[in-house]
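User: Okay, second chain of the day. Same drill as before: sequence in, structure tokens out.
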Amino acid sequence: MDGITLSIQDLLDDKEYGLDLRLIAGASGLGHRVSSSRIQKPGLALTGYTQHLHPDRIQVLGNTEISYLFQLSDERLRDNTQKLCSFPISSFVVSKGLTPPAAFLEITEQHAIPVLVSPHQSSTFISLITKFLEERLLPTTHLHGVLVDVLGVGMLLTGKSGIGKSECALDLVIRGHRLVADDMVFIRKKMPASLVGQPVQQIQHLMEIRGLGIINIKDLYGVSSIREKKIIDLVLELMEWNPDQEYDRLGIDDNTTTILGVELPHLVIPVRPGRNLGSIIEVAARNFLLKGMGYHSAKDFQQRLLERMEVRHLGDEVE
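Assistant: Same drill. Structure tokens below.
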């Protein structure tokens, strides 16, 4: 997560995770950055004991904290709040739709520390904000390629421009499989070690077919032909056939490639006229599922071959 941050404005703008936040103070601090997915309930920090305060974390104030603030004298409230706000706190979030004392809002406004209010219970909000931060703070990247869902297997097709990735994906859609993204795939790392691919919003559901132009897969084949996102399970690199190059003919070795620190199985598929790439990719998906169930066709063939060679060797010795 090195170098990845979110602004408090990003929290305020959320429509996907149900944070449902509204701003009540500190608008000038909405540019403050958050880099940790952990939150903190300040607790003793409200009493003036700030030794274990983590100002880089979002500070959540629940019913207990707000009730405590209202019980303080105005002077004590101001002193404690001033001491708390002397730290570079990213923001406060008040749960249950509660409103803090006016003095607290006044001082946070002076220090440009945003105060947001959520209608959720503290436990519910903490769960929502933790999920939001964990997913949004993870590394991301964009890759040139096509992502399709074939029999539930997320297959990322890569290769140089014009090699036939989109045409191959179109053939798979016609066969009943699903398009996730064409041309540019937005990839987000998801803990502990998986990658989720989705389309760039501007070209979602669209595909470029040379000679036809831009087509809308969702409009042509219906909602069952597309997916919004998919975990990437396998990378297939389409490469022009080179008669001088040796290609893997057995599939015994499991090659991998690394994206955002995650290792994925990697296959190189030679492309030449007469090869039905749609069928090959469909078989690759079935073979991947079979390996996941513990059966490796190439290794099983190798084992049977070795056993046959041993039998013949023993027969020679007997003779």
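The domain at 140-301 is CATH 3.40.50.300 (Rossmann fold).

User: Thanks, on to the next one.
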